[in-house]
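Lab notes, practical 5.
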Amino acid sequence: MKRSSLIAAAVLSVAAVALAGCSSSPASSTPTTGTVQLLGPEDPKTFAPVIHGFEAKNPGVTVKYTQVPFDQLSSTLQQRLAAKDSTIDVYTVDQPNLPQLAAQGFLEDLSALEPEAKAATTDGQYKINLYKDKMWALSVWNSTQMMFFNRDALAKAGVTPPSADPADRWTWEQTVEAGRKAQAAGIKSGLLLEQVEAYYQLQPLVESLGGGSGITGKDMLTPAVETAGWKKAMEWYAGTFASGLSPRGVGGFQTSPVFANGDVAFFVGGPWDVGNFSQNAKFDWGIAPLPSFEGGKKVTPTGSWSWGINPASKNKELAKKFLTYAALDTEGNLLTTKNTTIIPANSAAEKKYLPTLEALGGAHSAGVEKLVAYEVANTAVARPVSVGYVQFDSIMGKAFADIRNGADVPARLSQATQQLKDAWSQLK
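Output from the prediction step:
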């Protein structure tokens, strides 16, 4: 993700919540006064509601939030956690990075909360926090992807738009054909993915064709990006740019304005774009399920941010109390999404949140509530759990960039394989 959760999305107006919490009461030994230090990449406005809600329920406790830019978050955490910096109590964990952080001893073991965590969210969002049979964080946000379409452009091209019903999911083959018709009728581009070089958004292409995640082996440190499914998916992806269906020269997260400006027939993006397009798109648009390949598996990406506790924290009980409020308590988890359009990971909070997401785009986003709920429960495939995921994400991101710019697919995937072997040799 995301990533998706870092996009500056439109503020989602949600009525003040007065919901019963679902987390268990903290142990009697938990202090009633003190300060919890929270660190993450989001704008302070994003977490202000959950902080205010927690402080209102715990008058003697203060939560102080420190923002670190996303591109500096990983290095900042590595430096401060390695130095056993006790001024971080709770921090946001990019879910694919959890195994590495846990293996380094940078996360407190939260296995005692497993029963509550398992009951509070989907199986996928519960398991994403496990490493070597222990639980190291709690899921706060989740995500999915959908296909947005320019209804006006499709009407001009004589194309009947896709339905929001997952049962009527289009194939990628249908999408390409319709996109080319829209181009012939005057629109600049037929198809554009929001995160054009991100594994998060390209993984479903490969998985739909049976290519696998790209990582295999008992220790999940063996590259597998040269399977038939990987090659076929990447050849297809390269072809969308080579044919002019998709525009080159537009980087990740610079892409949503291209759709909002009316220059693309089909756009793959996340729930945050519902708020974005409801404010910025001046044409008739709609939403549909993420396509799959003809005869292939129906796959959507998932995952976002979990929160964990610093083992060097001197306020672990208060930190755990705040963390459980933000993740396991329905009210608290919903408050984490009050100022951003992102899916809460807590299932009860998600159920209350999705109607507000659908209302945000009016008729344009009709059907998004049922669509998101279906995808999260039925088609979501998480990114692979590996201590080498950080290197994998970086190496494959560069490979994707080269492929969309014309690199030979088999040769580039072979090069990526060798790069992964070299990078992971130090971890075995």
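Observations recorded by the TA: The longest strand covers residues 34-40. Residues 177 and 413 are 27 Å apart (CA to CA).
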